[in-house]
Structure formats: C-alpha cells, structure tokens
C-alpha cells in the first residue's frame, strides 16, 4: 500500500478524495517528480476548497494541512470566482479547474468552467480562461488520465460535455456536448435529465455519467484524440426508480463500481467488466443507521486507496457513513456513522497518505478534519472545525520540495 501512496505522490500537485483510476483516489492521476510524504512524518498539504459564492464567500479558498498534527490553517487570500462548487487538478499538476455553477434557468443559460495556473512556490491561483460548460448549472468535472480533455456534467441542462485542454492549461470550447432525454418517477426532482457526475474508467476508455433525473448510470465510449463521446453498447445500468444516482466511485481493483443514490440515501454496488463496460448489480445498502426517521439526502462517495473502506456523506443525518468492503466480491458492510460536526456535509476528501479525511459542512460554514483509523476505517475528530463560508468541495495537493 505504501508503494501505491508513494507512486501517487510523485507530482508537485496531487488531488485527493475519489476512487483510484477515475478520480476517486486522487481526483485525477499523477506524474512528475517530487518528494514523497509518508503518513505521520510531518510536512504539509495544500488544501483548496470550492464554495458557493454570495454572502461572505468569494470563491476558492486555500489552506495548509499539517500531516503531523492534522491542523488546518488559512493560506492566503481566496481566489475570486463565481460559484466554483467543484474542483479538479490537472493530472500533471500545475493547473486547477473549477465549474462555475451558474445558468440553468428556463431560458437555457449556460454555466462555465474556469482554468487556473497554480504557483508552484506559493500555491496561489492565477486565472487563465473560462469556457461555456455546454449546459446550465455545471456541478462536477474530471480530467482524462493524460490531461488532454476535461469532462463536465451539467445538472440543469442534463448534458455532459468535453472541453479540450491546451498545452498552457487553458480550455478550448467544447468538442462534444451530449444531451440526455427522459425523466423518472419523482415529480419534484426527476421531471427531466440531471447529469450529476462524470468520470472515466481506469482504462481511460469509457466515460460514465450518473444522471439523477433518469435513474441511470450511462456509459459512453471516449476518444481522447478527438474529444468525443459515443453511446456504448451496453449503454450502462439502471438504478431503482426514484433512487437518484448522484456520484460514483470505482474500486482500486477496477472490478466494482459504487453508485451513491441521493434521493434514497443508498449505495448500489455493481460488478464491472472493463472489456465491455457492462455492469451487474450486486447489492444495495442504506447509508443511514437503523431507526433514523428524519429527512436525508446523500452527497459524496469515496473508496479508500487500499480498497478496504467506503465512505459516504449524509445531509440531514449530518454524518459520514463508513462501510467495510469485502475483498472477495466488493460487497459492503456498515461499520459506523460519524457526525461531521456541522450541517449538510457535501464533498469530502481523503488526503493522499490516507491519514486524514476533510469534510465540507456547507450549511454551518466549516471544514472538519478527522484522523482515519486504517484498521477499522473509523474517524476521530481533530480539533474544532475551521470556518469557511459555504464550502462544497475539498481538494488537496502536495507542495514541491
């Protein structure tokens, strides 16, 4: 496992928090030289937090995470941007991308994606350019393994788009925009398509899109040279009517996919065959403890780098649910629920060493830090949550040495 962590930390900027190979271990892949940080040895990680702007929030906030103590401290002024609610690093470091979750009105207004250069010495962000996202209310983005293309899911528009990445990190206009069609059974949330996340499989060959409005995980063949998406055969998988698939994570082995269902507060486990892209449902489990009767929706799902544990955030119960993953078949067993010390936890991230989990509590304006027990997956709070206005997304990067 340490060898895996070391390999993932060889670049100056390493994003963390999603599953291995589709932005689940590190919100991207890695490359390039740099010093390896081992858990507990000290050193710092840069932390970038995407927010909803308005009120006190100004955009993307920067922090330092002390790997010895778990202390999270402010690092400079925020970078102004409109509703940068989800972030992703370029796989070779040096660039950060943010959705601008705007648009989505009945008139068909589009949102955008912004590109930033990351200063290697200070971590400061410099705005490069901004391109339309191909739909309204973009809410999730990821990059292919070589950093040649950025893929973005537009919730309001029910579309997924591909934006080529230029050598200088700037974004070109979309090379492909795919619009979903249809609806499902929930009259409030599923009157039409709502693409909620997009990630590539470990082979960088198939793109999967979780569409909350259609109750589907849709599969597309991805051509990185042309930046195009073509429907795959088989076309993906269906979730239970009304489940509302939101985000998903591949297991590091590449043999299982875990789909988080926002409206039902469940995780559905699929086996995955990479040669065809076919998915077969294995199990669906609740993210809530027995006896909870309040309102809840889920937001983020992350698989640990060693493939032993899965984490999911509950908004309403305001907790991180922890599951042990069976190494034989990938099925889940609930092991506990840990309060996030705040309200409405959205995205969260495991740091690249696997020692800490940082959770964004949107409605209590805070980031909570937890130490991870690697044997049980349990989370132990580290100090009090750190004030951050309207946090939504957490990404981490190792500074150059």
SSE map:
Elements: H1 2-8, E1 44-51, E2 59-66, E3 72-74, E4 79-80, E5 87-89, E6 95-100, E7 112-118, E8 125-132, E9 138-143, E10 149-154, E11 159-164, E12 176-179, E13 195-200, E14 206-211, E15 216-223, E16 228-238, E17 245-250, E18 256-261, E19 266-273, E20 278-286, E21 297-303, E22 309-315, E23 319-325, E24 332-339, E25 345-350, E26 356-361, E27 366-372, E28 379-381, E29 386-387, E30 391-397
Antiparallel strand pairs: 1-2, 1-30, 2-3, 2-4, 5-6, 6-7, 7-8, 9-10, 10-11, 11-12, 13-14, 14-15, 15-16, 17-18, 18-19, 19-20, 21-22, 22-23, 23-24, 25-26, 26-27, 27-28, 27-29
Commentary on this structure:
With 401 residues, the chain is mainly beta. It has a single domain, classed as 7 Propeller (Methylamine Dehydrogenase, Chain H), CATH 2.130.10.10. It contains one helix and 30 strands. Strands 1, 2, 3, 4 and 30 form a five-stranded antiparallel β-sheet that branches. Strands 25, 26, 27, 28 and 29 form a five-stranded antiparallel β-sheet that branches. The two termini are 23 Å apart. The N terminus is likely disordered.
